[in-house]
Design goal:
Elements (H helix, E strand, L loop, with lengths): L4 H8 L3 H9 L6 H14 L5 H8 L4 E6 L5 H16 L3 E6 L4 H13 L4 E4 L6 H9 L3 E5 L10 E4 L1 H14 L5 E5 L5 H16 L9 E3 L4 H14 L5 E4 L2 H13 L9 E5 L3 H5 L5 E4 L2 H15 L19 E4 L2 E3 L14
Parallel strand pairs: 1-2, 1-3, 3-4, 4-5, 5-11, 6-7, 6-8, 8-9, 9-10
Antiparallel strand pairs: 10-12
Length: 349
Amino acid sequence: MTITLNDVAQAAGVSRSTASRALSGSPLISATTRAQVERAAQQLGYRVNRMASALRSRQSRLIGLVLTNLINASFHTIAEVVQRRAVAQGYQVLLCITDGDSQRERAVLNTLAEHNIDGVIIVGSSEHAAITNGMLAGGTAVVNVIREPNDSAAPAVLAADRDGAYEATTYLLGLGHRRIGFIGGPQQITSGRDRYSGYSAALRDAGLDVNPALVRRGALEPAFGAEALTELLKAAPAMTALIAANHEAAFGILPTLVAHGVRVPEDLSLICYEDIPWLSWWHPPVTVVDSGPRELGELAMDLLSQQLDRGGQSPRPPAPAPRSARTYRVGAQLIVRSSCQAPAPAPTR
């Protein structure tokens, strides 16, 4: 025998509409009445028909979180923030991992759109603004995080990556380093461009040219970090400092330093981009540029919440035509630990 909402309402001694509002979390229902209805629903074994509810209200109460990978520790923090905030607001989160594959990302976005998702927070490839613009125009809330696609009508929440890389490079210059290596992300993503821009600007401001032999830029994966560092150690043996601005690559850089017997900071000063707890436990503890992932997640949810319909059971009104996207930045912070020191004096002949 199927238990209906009418059965729950009768058992709780309330009207059907009151029972519906109570189970949907409406603020119009008192805490006492809500608890009474929820208790009756639990005792009867009633389950809300989410599909029927979504058809009636045009609200799925679902938020998509689209990430390129789960290697990046900042993405973990952002996911935790989004999950906590979403549940508190009566939403559930669908986590979608694209592995940085543009076609997979396209498929994920199309699937979310087909299922009438209420909102999407995306760390994407920057290649599918047309899809997210269509979702936005159709009433779906959209926020870009960490990467800012060209032509996107949705707001973007970015770290102050250029400032962070500039500060890190300036810090090393202040210690006396002049041959500073750089391992970064690809040019086509926002963080890859901005971090390299900060590094090169700091060198120029110090009267130095960027030496291509000291620079490697590539895929966001540990294998690239190991390969890039091995190349730098061979091609630029006089390198005295390194900025690991590709966070995923750092998982390959650190063990490769150990494998090659490179002492930090005696042989090479090291700064990594994006903080995670085990960098402070490494020997020696690694100086980092903290990009503020918790703040990025909080701001992204603030912006998503502003777009979501808070009007209860009424259908969402048609969205206005997309406007020029706004960009919000979270400041970066250099956290100095023990992995940097002045370069050793050049040997005398």
